[in-house]
From TrEMBL:
Gene3D superfamilies: Vaccinia Virus protein VP39. Pfam families: Methyltransf_25. This is Methyltransferase domain-containing protein. It comes from the Eukaryota. Residues 55-151 form the Methyltransferase domain. Signal peptide: none annotated.
Length: 285
């Protein structure tokens, strides 16, 4: 929870405005969450005719887009894409209409869905379960409730993010004396994500957990832009503070400096590659 009630500085507000927010996300963290989604779809059986799929906490529709762009996906499927963030939903609605996709886009909270019990053959939640209440349990319970017997659920969480420690270090550099919040629950070891799925009703014997890596790859001359967008998204983890507007360039420059020396960063020619890892659980009801 934020420990400050100061509004985001204008630099952050500009990058997170309704017209810019989706692009800001898709060109930073979205570079790796899309890779996670692609990997996770590859480790479940192919979709069958008549599949009813929940793209849960869908964002701008990364999972739906991957499913529908696959030549192996049958035409007789239905996707329900849900989220609570209007800019992302608006973007997805436009894409659905433009492509005439079999996707229904609605504003629904992951831990308070109003779909009937046993609705979906598949429930896919990409880098979102940890945002739901009760440390993820409420979201997991809704996944279990709305999934058909025999259905497949896929959930994942961060295992490692190269740029998180640099964000923390920048916070400490520009906001001395302001504590950086420690997560109430640690997800990084893969234990908690399994626990919430078990507690939601999934049997241990019907769950498999694995780990995979992805890379945010940016041009060296584009790293500062990437860092600025990332700071707009993540600089408020501890809240925004008086003086953040004036310290904006200092914060972004410091973030660039730290990103380049992280163990998870590889610089090859004019490319900078930053590693992120996920834990992914595939569970059968």
């Amino acid at each position: 929870m934020n420990i400050s009630t100061v509004n985001p500085p204008p630099q952050a507000q500009a990058l997170l405005s309704a017209t810019k927010k989706v692009d800001t996300y898709e060109t930073t963290g979205g570079l790796v969450t899309a890779q996670f989604a692609k990997h996770n779809l590859s480790i479940i059986p192919p979709f069958q005719d008549g599949s009813i799929i929940h793209d849960n906490a869908c964002g701008s529709g990364t999972v739906s887009r991957l499913i529908l762009s696959s030549p192996s996906t049958p035409s007789d499927i239905k996707i329900h894409a849900t989220d609570i963030d209007p800019p992302f939903l608006t973007t997805l609605e436009h894409t659905v209409k433009e492509n005439k996709w079999p996707v229904s886009v609605t504003n629904r909270k992951s831990e308070a869905l109003d779909f009937p019990d046993n609705t979906f053959t598949h429930s896919l939640t990409n880098i979102a379960i940890f945002f739901t209440s009760s440390a993820g349990l409420d979201g997991a319970k809704e996944i279990y409730r709305t999934l058909q017997p025999g259905g497949i659920a896929v959930v994942n969480c961060w295992a490692h993010v190269t740029w998180l420690l640099p964000v923390k270090a920048v916070h400490e550099a520009i906001r001395p004396g302001k504590p950086f919040p420690t997560p109430v629950v640690a997800w990084h070891d893969g234990q908690h994500i399994q626990k919430v799925m078990r507690d939601a009703g999934f049997s241990e014997k019907n769950m498999e957990i694995s780990k995979s890596d992805a890379w945010a790859v940016v041009k060296r001359d584009g790293l500062r832009e990437w860092a600025e967008k990332s700071w707009a998204y993540l600089g408020g983890i501890a809240g925004w503070f008086e003086g953040d507007e004036q310290a904006w360039d200092q914060a972004v420059d410091k973030l660039v400096e730290l990103l380049l020396i992280q163990p998870g960063t590889i610089v090859e020619g004019d490319e900078v590659k930053m590693k992120a890892s996920q834990w992914v659980v595939v569970a059968h009801k």
